[in-house]
Amino acid sequence: MVDNDEQDMTGLKVMVIDDSKTIRRTAETLLKKEGCEVITATDGFEALAKIADHHPDVIFIDIMMPRLDGYQTCALIKNNSSFRGTPVIMLSSKDGLFDRARGRIVGSEQYLTKPFTRDELLGAIRRHLSRAA
Fold first, then answer.
1. In the chain, helix, strand, coil percent, each to 5?
2. Surface-to-core class of residue 46, CB atoms within 10 Å of its CB (0-12 exposed, 13-18 middle, 19+ buried)
3. Which residues does residue 32 pair with via DSSP β-bridges, in sequence order?
4. What radius of gyration do the chain's Cα atoms show?
5. What per-residue confidence (pLDDT) applies to 96?
6. Bridge pairing between strands 110-113 and 88-92
7. CA–CA distance from 86 to each of 47, 76, 82, 98 (Å)?
8. Kind and range of the H or E element at 8?
9. CA nearest 61: which of 33, 37, 92?
10. pLDDT number for residue 131
11. Is 35 left (phi over 0), alpha (psi -120 to 50) or beta?
């Protein structure tokens, strides 16, 4: 049953950056069921190239990644005037105050603890889309 208050996510571009194939697949499956276009990347370097090409509407970033971690990636996204307004949601298996604070400092809008539920994932997107709309 679909509630009329729920926003239609068809065609929404969502990027998921995580070095875990399981997390990428889980998020991709959930988001595609909602009609989203999903772009995935395994680390910050790959993500930055894809962000420029695809201009995602929302970006999920894992904190702990090789080469370029989530904080560095988020800071680079937010320092680019073209993507400054794009909501960035940090993903982490740690639910620490320090991690949340550090995420805010680099400009992330929200913090989700892994493993996340379908409702948490979709709720995070809706929360930021309603602001952008």
1. 45, 20, 40
2. middle
3. none
4. 14
5. 83
6. parallel
7. 14, 12, 9, 23
8. none
9. 92
10. 57
11. left
**106 token code pair:** 């680099």
β partners of residue 14? 38, 58
Q: Which helix (H) or strand (E) holds 37?
A: strand 37-41
Domains of the chain, CATH where assigned: 13-132 (3.40.50.2300)
In this prediction the pTM is: 0.91
pLDDT band at 63 (very low <50, low <70, confident <90, very high): very high
**Token duo for residue 15:** 């990027």
| Opening angle at CA 30, ends 126 and 104, nearest 5 | 45
Structure tokens at 59: 């970006």
The answer on pLDDT for 35 being more than 90 is yes
